Amino acid sequence: MADLDVLIVGAGISGLGAAYYLQREHPRKKYAILEARGALGGTWDLFRYPGIRSDSDLHTFGYEFRPWRDEHSIAGADKILGYLRETAEEHGIDRAIRFHTKVIAAEWSSSDAHWTVEVEKDGERETLTCSWLFSAGGYYRYDQGFTPQFEGRERFRGQIVHPQHWPEDLDYAGKRVLVIGSGATAVTIVPAMAPAAGHVTMLQRTPTYVLPVPSKDPIRNALRKVLSEERAFAITRRKNILQQQLTWRFAQRFPHAARRLIRWFNAKLLPAGYPVDEHFNPPYNPWDQRLCVVPDGDLFTAIRRGQASVVTDRIATFTETGVLLESGRTLEADIIVTATGLNVQAFGGMTLTVDGSPVNLPDTLAYKGMMLSGVPNFAYAIGYTNSSWTLKVGLLCEHFCRLLAHMDAHGYDTARPVVADPDAPTRPFLDFGAGYIRRSLADLPRQGGRAPWLTSMSYFNDVKLLRRLPVEDDELHFSHSRTHLVPQPSTHPNR
């Protein structure tokens, strides 16, 4: 008998959501959440850089089961963290979290139908057993951000800071700040630091699409005045889901029109004569990489006020007082912020073994975006890259609970995805052009060319697959540990 029915790894927004659905749908199952850090909240507790906020609206980024009540639709980390803490406390999820406990390795035994999980707690190693292992730790390393090699970095006499390791006592008042990067982190930090700093410069190799959005949702706030909080939230959530999906589909189908529209928004908020095409017109199409959202156009406001500027160039070398660019221009700085991205790490870095054979992730295929081929009783939560992360996580958690119910109803203790045609062509795990993803594709699972081996980025397709269609599938094999592993007939094959 395993110690736990389900062991959830990670106490961030995905792990807390998984715990809620599990205890709602399966109140008799024993579960625990392991968290390597000393607090819940994941990303929203880890990052402490100025201005940190969501780049999705909280009516869709928050949980479907718990309305977002704040008037701000785009919210800062403090409000998001408060929301997560309140959710965990309200549903008793906080009592199931074991802090300072990092998963090192997990080994599956088919004869026992359970995982033996090796963890490290306060420097000591111990083991737990569980029937299911649910990885909810996201896809990047919490202990280490990505910084490229910069020539002459050691010569710089000022302070170099990575957003993932922001010093609490950093004093940038009146100082020249150089932010290297152009992604979501950079476009958040620049306007947040600009009012207090002497001047903030965002240095980018390549422009990024930046889309201004209102920080408050006027329709939702109007609905609150005439409807209950729950009803107003439900309508707003549906509206925003539709808006996200239509925006993404429009950009995919009409990329040139989407590019022109975004450029029009940018030019409208920037000073007259500003070189928009030099600094805000990327060489790729919208949504080939994630769009950067700036609430109330705060980045453009900082530029318009002369508090911030954008430079598009490449670094030749760091100098004692800043950086020398390939164009020959020098940028002076007292503080350099390397907002250069993340290091991707699948499943928190844990190693998986099945019946004595190590699992090589690139040899596996993603099943329904939540399991791995050949790996029994292992699930994971990876959200959307083209809309709110939590939209997909909620659907995955619902489907996971349906899967457990199906297994209980039929007496199964093992579920293993098995590819019918191992020689079928595959493609990368995520069809996404972000640098942090491209750097790591060789170490990640793959996806196939058809369902159920696709990692879908369509909420409406996932609603059908994960919420409405049966969990049975010709390529999901169920068994009991005392019987042979045999496929069960599917009543509704997902082809």
UniProtKB/TrEMBL annotation:
Its cofactor is FAD. It holds the Pfam family FMO-like. The keyword Iron-sulfur does not apply. One of its GO terms (molecular function) is N,N-dimethylaniline monooxygenase activity. Keywords: FAD, Flavoprotein, Monooxygenase, NADP, Oxidoreductase. It comes from the Bacteria. InterPro entries: FAD-binding_MO (IPR051820), FAD/NAD-bd_sf (IPR036188), Flavin_mOase-like (IPR020946). Belongs to the FAD-binding monooxygenase family. This is NAD(P)/FAD-dependent oxidoreductase. The lineage of its organism: Bacteria, Bacillati, Actinomycetota, Actinomycetes, Pseudonocardiales.
